Automatic annotation (TrEMBL):
Signal peptide, first to last residue: none
Protein name, UniProt field: EthD domain-containing protein
Source organism: Streptomyces tauricus
One of the Pfam families matching this protein, by short name: EthD
Limits of the EthD domain: 8-94
Superkingdom of this protein's organism: Bacteria
Length: 109
């Protein structure tokens, strides 16, 4: 699963990054279902890139699951729905949120 995230209005990129790293991520990793269901979890943040336009997003999240059952077990569990999901509104512009459930095809590497 790949998720694109933009910070909520009124928040700087640094505030967004701090919140995602130090508040939201520990919250996610504190629920047992995250440890049981997520195989790999990567967050990428934009860096200055001369001659490139400003990025459309403040972070891209990649979450690997072994099966669709594992993905569903996380997102349908009570801990996710009552603890983790409500926290998204504290730092994400929920109207620009993007998500794709996908299968990776390695082209190089």
């Amino acid at each position: 699963m790949v998720i694109t995230l933009k910070r909520r209005e009124g928040m700087t990129h640094d505030e967004f990054t701090h919140y995602q790293r130090n508040i939201h991520r520990p919250l996610l990793m504190s629920i047992p279902e995250a440890k049981q269901c997520i195989r790999r979890f990567v967050v990428s943040y934009p860096v200055p890139a001369p001659n490139c336009p400003e990025p459309d997003y403040d972070s891209v999240v990649e979450a690997w699951f072994d099966t669709m059952d594992d993905l569903n077990a996380l997102f349908l569990c009570e801990n996710w729905q009552k603890t983790v999901d409500p926290d998204h509104e504290n730092f994400i512009d929920l109207h620009s949120f993007g998500r794709i459930i996908c299968e990776e095809e390695v082209v190089v590497g």
